[in-house]
Design a protein that fits this description.
- Pfam families: Hydrolase.
- Belongs to the HAD-like hydrolase superfamily. CbbY/CbbZ/Gph/YieH family.
- InterPro entries: B-phosphoglucomutase_hydrolase, Beta-PGM, HAD-like_sf, HAD-like_SPP, HAD-SF_hydro_IA, HAD_sf, PGP-like_dom2.
- Keywords: Isomerase, Magnesium, Metal-binding.
- The structure is a single chain.
- With 214 residues, this protein is an alpha/beta fold.
- The protein is built from nine helices and six strands, in the order βαααααβαβαβαββα.
- A six-stranded parallel sheet has the order 3-2-1-4-5-6.
- Helix 1 packs across helix 4.
- The protein is globular, with a radius of gyration of 17 Å.
- Bound molecules: 1,6-di-O-phosphono-beta-D-glucopyranose and magnesium ion.
């Protein structure tokens, strides 16, 4: 029986993917990489900040030291953080708030499991913090998805065994991470049909039968 649901953040509870994309594109252009596009950005879903930077840099020819890479990632994060200032509860994805409310009513625990180090700030801005029992994010982990660490930390914070948890994810790396951690999976988002989740839905408002999943 599912006793806790762990939600990925970007692409599941809120759509920050466009803001990530704009910030990476700005950085890429400044580095003379003009052909960084949405297809490249798709590969950055659920992937850590430094791994996302590599996806940008592989489009260029210049080599950077680790120190330079850290500075570039920080620059992108500054652009991204500026754009987060416009984020509001209106940016919560369809059905997300209702799903959290329904789970609380049923006595199912809820957590976020996100690669983002900006997760706490984002959750404050979109006002979902009161509906979540625990947060596990980029600040808690050293290994990124598909390593299961972020979800195992979430389960541990909830005080639950992995097999009693369901993970809701929109990325291939995230579904794989949940599987690696021994959790059940609900795939959502535009790629939901291709991610191999135990269950799938276009978004959280189109989940047909929560009873079957829980
Ligand atoms: P940050 P998620 C992920 O969030 C994003 O999908 C991914 O594009 C981003 O690189 C990663 O967070 C790290 O974010 O730079 O804010 O620490 O899908 O795991 O909620
Ligand atoms: Mg995601």
């Amino acid at each position: 029986m599912i006793r806790g649901v762990i939600f990925d953040l970007d692409g599941v509870l809120v759509s920050t993917d466009e803001l990530h994309y704009q910030a990476w594109k700005r950085l890429a252009n400044e580095l003379g990489i003009m052909d960084f596009g949405r297809k490249d950005n798709e590969r950055q879903r659920g992937v850590s900040r430094m791994a996302s930077l590599e996806i940008v840099l592989e489009k260029g020819t210049k080599k950077y030291t680790d120190e330079e890479k850290r500075a570039l990632a920080e620059k992108k994060n500054d652009y991204y953080k500026k754009s987060l200032q416009s984020l509001s509860p209106e940016d919560v994805l369809p059905g997300a708030k209702e799903a959290l409310e329904m789970l609380r009513e049923r006595g199912v625990l809820t957590a976020v499991g996100s690669a983002s180090k900006n997760a706490p700030e984002i959750l404050e801005r979109i006002e979902l913090m009161p509906l979540l029992d625990k947060i596990s994010c980029g600040l808690d982990i050293t290994r990124s998805k598909p390593d299961p660490e972020v979800f195992l930390v979430a389960a541990e914070k909830l005080g639950l065994a992995p097999e009693d948890c369901l993970v809701v994810e929109d990325s291939a790396a995230g579904i794989q991470a949940a599987r690696n951690g021994g959790m059940k999976t609900l795939a959502v988002g535009p790629l939901s049909g291709q991610l191999g989740g135990d269950f799938e839905a276009r978004n959280l408002s189109s989940v047909e039968n929560w009873d079957e999943i829980l």
